[in-house]
Queue: 4 jobs
Job 1
Amino acid sequence: MMNKSLFLACALFTACATQAAVILQYHHVDTGTPRTTSVTPAEFRQQMQHLKDLGYQVVSLDTIIDGLVRNQPLADNAVAITFDDGFANVFTNARPILKEFNYPYTMFLGPALIDRREGPVLSWPQIQTMQQEGVIIANHSSYHHRLAVPNKGESKAQWRQRVKTDILLAQQQLEEKLGQKRKWLAYPYGDFSAELEALVSELGFIGIGQQSGAVGPGVSLTRIPRYPSSSQFAAMKHFVPKLKTLALPVTDYSGADPVSTTNPPVLTLSVDSSDFRTTSLNCFFDGKPLPLKWLDADTFRVQATAPLKLNHNRYNCTAPSRSKPGYFYWFSQPWVFVSDK
């Protein structure tokens, strides 16, 4: 689960550790869709204009993922734009804005949902038009079911077969319809588990989440973070600071399985703290600070004092960079709760 080679390749160079790209994540670009997953066209345009005005490099997601895979430093002002689910308003509302700015972007979609016309989704002709214009179309599983853990009454073997079939079916459909062969999977709902990460790696895929954070040394290739930029996060007061973040250089994810049988869950994480003071690292849930304990010079543990009750539960940990004033290291840990019975 850990991209060890990338971390080790950069471990001796602080300059490498302080280079990080940002991946933005959207669903709807519309005024009449659920606010929780939407950004208005005006908000979206404002965000895109800010990227241009501040001189950010809006790059293809290929550029960022290839850099991670090849252990190459990432441009610290690189930004990639992604959309999940394949909603038609991306074609009608976001696409003209992105063409105006000449920004590349990626769409993760579920082929079965497109075939069935489930919801206000794109048509295959629209998708083909976008691809011909240079848009990357990639795997969001075929049916957009939750993949992280077995369903009720489902054995581990049945879960594994279901998930494997879903991922590979979507890949086959995208290849047949579009010739798309990139083995990237954006997890439906952003949910994943250590066991799903292992399966994704076994299948040769890159795994992409919806938890916030920058992309750089120490980021696992089976849990690449993206910044959700809709809902309340569409506001510029939330959008702008995300662009000045760095990837917390994690050296061991073994205590960071998102699946927990206890609530509140425990996060144990080992990091390279050479570019931040351990006393300045803080973790939060729903904007409130969490008690944090350093177990040794490189490993900390954090646990909320009360059960988590949000629909999307995250611990967010941040620390200011010592060598890059104004930038913060950022790590987000998502949670998936299951019964231990």
Job 2
Amino acid sequence: MSKTYIALCIITLLTTATMAQVDPVFNASGHYGQTNISYNLNENVLYSATSRFRVGSTVENGNSGRLFDGDFDRAAITVAAAGNATLTIDLKGKGGLSVAQPKGYLYLNFYESNSCDSLYVRFYDSTGEFADFQYADWENVSTTSPFIRLRLHIPDWVNPTSKIEIKAFAPSAAVLTITEMEYYLENRGQFEGGLVSKWGSNTLYDLLQFADTSNTVKAKIQSNGNAVLSKLGIGTDNINDDSTVLFANGRIRAREIKVDADIWPDYVFEKNYKLLTLPQVQAYINQYGHLPGLPSAAMVVQKGWELGKGQAALLQKIEELTLYLLQQQKDMEGLQRELMRLKAARKQ
């Protein structure tokens, strides 16, 4: 009895045992039967396949990087009728070593209902020995008809792995279209663990979402560069203040900062505004050591300075100072007129 036959028997049993497993990674339908990627607290770290590993294809129009870019290309790789294509994931192709624990899931997505006429995967260890998985070892886990999404569970005994070869044969009278390829390592905590898919060399996935264990989305990043975060710490992980969303421990340099304000202190110039007299201001300073309406130095050290409200408060003081100056100008002009009147009276 050959070693290959024994291996096939074992994998058949293992595949049967895992048929009822819930997909551990994907949870939303994509354009062509694929599913959108999400990263939850109970999942692994994401890695870029095309930057970490060397991937390739034997098909002339095959752009294997597109199989990992998450764009759901309708014709990412096409295989002519009765033709075949070999897709390769070289786990040590860019300076890495063989994966010590490759147990996980391998996925292939096909556009429309045309699936392979036959399909196999070959896992190579670091010595060049290999183990084969046949078409019967895969299961269709697509949630969107009529698209096909094949999944292969990789068992523990495939250990280690240095290269993965996927060979797909097209039907005799139909073109085969492969739109996405994914490789998910389920051994959490190891250096190689993660989802090896979805990121091309220059393209971020359409929508990358981070959710908690109750599947509540906490953050998301889009391919256009937009990101939505509930809170962000730069240079610090002390972000526990419920009323603050951005924390930076260090200098912030910007060409321009725009602050929205609900109230602006032009109300100082309204006729019913109660302007303190200068003696009242002097008494307040003598008692508290700072201007009325502004925080003390100790308060700023303890709680910081809110830029928007702070600018409004400073403008309020400038406008009040303007009123004081205008009043003094009126008083001086009145004194000058009185002085001129007294001089004229003295000459008479």
Job 3
Amino acid sequence: MAQEKHYRVDYLLNGNYKTFYIRASKMDNAEAWHWATVDAGVGQLPKYRTDPVTKLSKPQAEKHGITDVEWRSA
């Protein structure tokens, strides 16, 4: 298994500030947007770790009121 790190993800959901921490092997902007959608209750989690999951893109997330996603190492 790859080395996992802790990340902090901040975003706005319909104008309200949200933040959460996640442990992941990699993080980039696309991953941060995906996890923000999951935290907001819009995105999907896989039932099992190896199951594929459809990740929402930035434009799709913005249609659900998710904006200003930022992330950094925690």
Job 4
Amino acid sequence: MTVSARWNGEEIARSDDTVVVEGNHYFPPASVARSALVPSEKTTVCSWKGTAQYHSVNAGGAINQDAAWYYPAPKEKAASIKDRIAFGGGVEIVEE
């Protein structure tokens, strides 16, 4: 199954190799349009996944603040999502 992420009229990620954790598709870094990611200072902590780092999404001439996140050094139970990127904040995930 191919999964894509779209926001503001643009496809920002596409892969047939996502990992689903807690309902979120985590995309391999190479499948995400790097021009769509803007570094953010935001971090959050999950008790079992570890510390997430965020990006804002730049697509269609607009910025979606802190709508993408990844775990650069996840805890052992979440090792399968290391460096993979997930989306929220209204980014549409489409399973094809």
